[in-house]
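Re: export button greyed out
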Amino acid sequence: MDKIKVRKYRDEDEELVKEIFALGISEQVPTSFVHMLKQPLIQVVLMCVFFGLMAVFKSFLLPVLVISMLLVGMRQLVSQSFTKYIDFTLKEDFSRIQESYMEERDSCFWVAESEGRVVALMAYVPSKIYQEFLELKHVSVYRSHRRRGIAKTLCRVAVDFARTKGYQTIVLYTSVVQTDAQKLYEHIGFKKIRQFRRPTLTAKFTNFFLFEYQLKVLDAEALGFDLLQQEGRVDDLKGPRAPGHGGHSNTYAQGRKEAEERVRLQQQHV
Ligand SMILES: CC(C)(COP(=O)(O)OP(=O)(O)OC[C@H]1O[C@@H](n2cnc3c(N)ncnc32)[C@H](O)[C@@H]1OP(=O)(O)O)[C@@H](O)C(=O)NCCC(=O)NCCS
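Workaround output, generated via the alternate export path:
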């Protein structure tokens, strides 16, 4: 099997990371459509339309036609909402990776390479909702490179960083239709903390839940980060900061010292 190399994002990765992100999200369209069709409310509405039209027009063909058109329309709506999300995220987030991730405190954007080509991505930032939590974002792997442990390796990098910096919890968000992601996070040890819906009619009507997962960093010790470093699969983790870049400590030793200091200060506040 080809060797996977994990390294920090570089400007020349922009197009590929955008592509991998967009593909990973757009593949949720069919599953979201099926999820929508499974909702009892939607099934009842479709049945009412079908039998209502049949009763009024005494025809079978017309209701079939109308239901088919409704299904096409619903599929289109799902597709449009994902396209909107992708466009928004690419514009707001992926067009400023250097500023938003590489130059920000405790934030970073990572990629995994196979045979010199970027095949996966992952980012982390301090959580805006929870103080002292690190948020994991944008985990995505090219379809052809899945089930080889790449996402798990990328998550390990984030967990290792969190541990080094004294973050005690990692938080992330995924959706009801991202079942592969749910399996990945549960495999790593994340626990589902809560589920919620965005306050939109579509989310309510389609029962489109978002899940919040959290991982206690200490619980993740068993993941074997040292082994990962010995294997040399993670590049740049210990490397010096690029000039002008904030974020990571120069070395693990320094990072750990900072983490210990941080924990000590936290304890003083309790
Ligand atoms: C979710 C995703 C990132 C997983 O990437 P991956 O590199 O295939 O995952 P890994 O190979 O590291 O999987 C590690 C473990 O997670 C679990 N897992 C991952 N994908 C799984 C799947 N499709 N079915 C069952 N278990 C799965 C398994 O336990 C796996 O270990 P195993 O292969 O030894 O059984 C990938 O499927 C993806 O990019 N999906 C589309 C984008 C997406 O939904 N991203 C999540 C955003 S929140």
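The pocket of coenzyme A is lined by residues 24, 139-141, 146-152, 174, 178, 180-181, 183-184, 187 (CB under 6 Å). The button fix ships in the next patch.
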